[in-house]
Hints:
Layout: E1 12-16, H1 20-30, E2 36-41, H2 47-54, E3 59-63, H3 71-79, E4 83-86, H4 90-102, E5 106-109, E6 122-126, E7 129-133, H5 140-156, H6 158-174, H7 178-190, H8 192-208
Parallel strand pairs: 1-2, 1-4, 2-3, 4-5
Antiparallel strand pairs: 6-7
Amino acid sequence: MIPIFIKLKDFKVCIFGFGEVGRRRLDKIISGEPKKITIYTKENVDEETMSYYKNICNIEFITCNVEDLREEEIEEVIKEHDFIITAMDEKNNRKIVNIAKRFSKFINSSTFERNVNFIIPAYCYRDGIYFAVYTQGKSPLIARHIRKLVENYIENHGYEIDLQNSLRSFLKEYIPSQRDRKEILEEIFRNKDFKRELLELIKKYKKID
Length: 209
């Protein structure tokens, strides 16, 4: 697998299961702005929860025990969607994964079946920066810890990030070679005295503004 970022604006997403894991998957998927989300859940969803999600995305809740559906019915549901997420027990997850693979769908499972082709990792977004980490289910706690470390780093190094962004824009105007620009930036940020003085100057003029 390789990590990618995708906008879900033109895609339909189906989630089987709306327990703790299913809801976490939904909360992450919403940020991709899918065309529509359909939730299949055997539990009744309260009006407050449905109202909350309907106010922020195009979503439909269908109360249904997937175990009561014939395989042909599940196939029809899956064929209508582009991305499939299954967050139930291992037996039902495996069944959903196998059907989704037959129809070449993107499929994610909460029980880490070998055949999944779509992962939703721990990630953060701060000030235009995305960071994702995935441990293949070995340690979600470690993934969350790394994510928090990165979030703190971004928050505490905002000046440096802004500085690199400004310098890259400046160098692009005058240095055509990407390799040369990279070497210049690396040299600048290896020079601790230069970086410290420049950051102090930036802070000084920010205070004046």
